Records
---
Amino acid sequence: MNDFQNLTKILEDNKAAFVLLLCHRSADADAICSAFALQGLLKRFMPNVIIEVGCPQGINKLSKLLLEYLPITVNLNPNIESADVIVLLDTNTIEQLDQVATVIKESAAPKVIIDHHSQNPETTKICNLCIVDEKAAANCEIVYKLFMQAKTDPDPNEAKALFIGIAFDTRHFALANSSTLQIVAKLVTQGIDVQETLAQFALPIDSSERLAKLKACKRAKIVRINGWIIALSHVSAYQASAAKALVDLGAHMSAVAGQKNGKIAISLRCTRQFTEQAGVNLGKDIAAPLGEYLQGTGGGHAMAAGVSGTGEIEPTLKQCLLLLKRVLCTSRHPT
Ligand SMILES: [Mn+2]
């Protein structure tokens, strides 16, 4: 059986009347768009089942814009308790859903995960089906493959959503692989104006984000390990954007921490060269153990990862450096 058949079997076996497609905290275009397309696909085969896209921890700015231009409906306050089946999209750990995580854990409903991040064993343990492809550049890519397995084409709105999800998760295709581009080529034949669509959803950067990036650069501590340039910094918001900025400026790898409401969050970014030549996977080698150290969670991709937990900035960045030193001490120098 293929993934699509496995998924529909779970819905049928449980006589599901209400299926909840859940997106991660501050749901991004990839999460929302993959959920929207999956909703459409499942509705074709199960017209009597209520299938809802739920974002209990909000959606990001781009997603808000998407809701204006595409017929996507999300429930910001979904009734998780009454779901017969819960599908988690673009989410590798239910901890990404904060307080909702407990409700999901306690729910007796079968759980399915559809994701392209490195998997968290605690979360996969509670899932009945894991449709996971870490090589997929976007979650929308996995959902497109479900359409193919179902021998169905996405309609023009679904195609546009999948295209946007892929475009934004791959930083306008810079992180795409050949499978991604083959899918994109098929999607655009549905009548998508690529340049117009990308321009339509390009968000202006607000000044607080600009300032966060500049502050992170000003405060950065620069360390060299085995020839690799590491930048460590902290800002109270936009850690991910700041971490990316440090790598864009020249660091091979960056870690930017920030505290909010007694919690600490760290964003990790690196260049492709760092991952490939130093052999470091940020999600597995740094974010996961750092998450454990902070009694929280960590995960993500090889070149972009995130951690959240409890702790102070200084010791956290020190621990991050320690983990890096451990994996880099035997690494190759950059060429
Ligand atoms: Mn994604």
---
Amino acid sequence: MNMTDWPVLVAIAFAVFLGMEVFAWAAHKYIMHSWGWGWHQSHHEEREGWFEKNDLYAVVFAAFAILLFVIANYGYPLVGAVATGITLYGAFYFIVHDGLVHQRWPFRHIPHKGYAKRLVQAHRLHHAVKGKDGGVSFGFLYAPPIDKLTRQLRTEGTVAAERRGESGTDASATRH
Ligand SMILES: [Zn+2]
Ligand SMILES: [Zn+2]
């Protein structure tokens, strides 16, 4: 089989899709909750209007994927497969994170069972912490067991500290 045969390309796109979760987890934990907090903070606060500054991250990732598609057009199908994987992850993230969890869609659906419920709950726990530090559950496709996350939150003690107003960030801002 050739590297540019379609089953290989599909496999690469799928692998990139899965790999994006690791990348997204790391970017969320080490960039967005670190030096990239300037953009991400808006996502941990009440949103005013349709957009938040954090959406700029999606713009950057989309621009990168588009660039890869352009390169692929010059005869690099492998690059196209990578771009497809990134785009699929973006679409999934947009549907589940922005739609299901944050209800930025015109319709509401709250999953009451199965893995979808766990995904939503895990991300809600991420948002239980308003500030930059001491959060849990930075990934998305993979949600750790909920009781593990609640235990971790309790150990970190961030939520309680924020309620007492000990944290440097504005703990009064609520976002559910
Ligand atoms: Zn976050
Ligand atoms: Zn979120």
